[in-house]
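A quick aside before the break. I want you to see a complete sequence-to-structure record at least once, exactly as it would be stored in a machine-readable document. Don't worry about memorizing anything.
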Amino acid sequence: MIPAARRAVPGADRRGPAHRGAGHASCHHGEILQGVFLDAAGRRCAGLVTLPMTGPGSRAEFTRHPGTPPEQLTVRPGDRTKAARAAVLAVEECARRRREEPCGGELRISGDIPVGLGMGSSTSDVIAVVRAVADSYRVLLPPDAVARLAVRAELASDPLMLDARPVLFAQREGRVLEVLGRRLPPLVVVGCALGGGAPVDTLALPARVHDDTDVRAFERLRTLLRRAVATGDAALLGEVATASARRGQQVLCHPEFDTLADIARRLGAVGVQIAHSGAVAGLLLDPAAPGLRRRVRSCVRALESNGIAATRTFTTFPTSPTPAASPASPPSLTFPTTKEFPSGPAHRGGHRPTGPDTPRRPAHLPAL
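That is the input. The structure line, written in tokens, reads:
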């Protein structure tokens, strides 16, 4: 069950004009684990564990117009059909909670999440919109309600409405299958984009039917990931992520994947992770191992010498200094700056597949 959020006091918000609200949602860096698992009732269920990443995100502003019909909704940019559906659903939900009639309004969406790389750009838009609508009603929706609205708006949702705790999330049902622990083991992730950063059309990928053998394999990886989180074992997490990424290649078939895995093995990374619905990937490093900065630089050079665009380096732990920093969480790390995509589809505008929810922005992944 998704942890409940604190309920807002109606009318207590003084941040701006009545009927106007704002919302924000972050993205992720693909998945650590994705497959088919058994829920508490023993039923097969598609699920995933994402790799959280701060930085890029979606922002939404919603101004509701009481007394107007709900269908009178203006959305900018006008091609964000999933976000528009989310706004309508969120208005219905919030109006019901406030015992008011649903109404129309104006919605503006902006953001800097690369599209088509498997970083949850559409889910981020949807969650930012739901939060903006709820803010306009001065209602704080609990995460499970946000998850249900997100799934209704886009059929499948990443768990971006939750905090950074690692969870196994049923993306097509909007529910948590398992909270794996408090936090991921400390990792440094050297990000990259496979296929030159070209978007992946997930709807065109072949559907794969998983048998009992597959489910047993995914459940074993789930057990190992649970142990990695409980013990803070970066190496074990890397083993799980690599195994999941290899299984994902049965559908995605990235030609650079073997090169990526070879770089990880040669340079002492604990593993690799990929977006199972996109092109973003990462080399996973243990920050407690010696020579971290040297290894990060070596990874960046190896990626780019093999024609794989290095994107950004980030961590799964805070990097600001703290008085009681533990050896497993080194403070104030400074990493070499990686480049944006130097060329190819990911560096040019208009890269998103034509159709609904197609923004006109380039898929840059600025370096940290």
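Two observations worth writing down. Helices lie at 81-98, 121-136, 143-154, 212-231, 234-252, 257-266, 292-305. The two ends are 34 Å apart (CA to CA). We'll return to this after the break.
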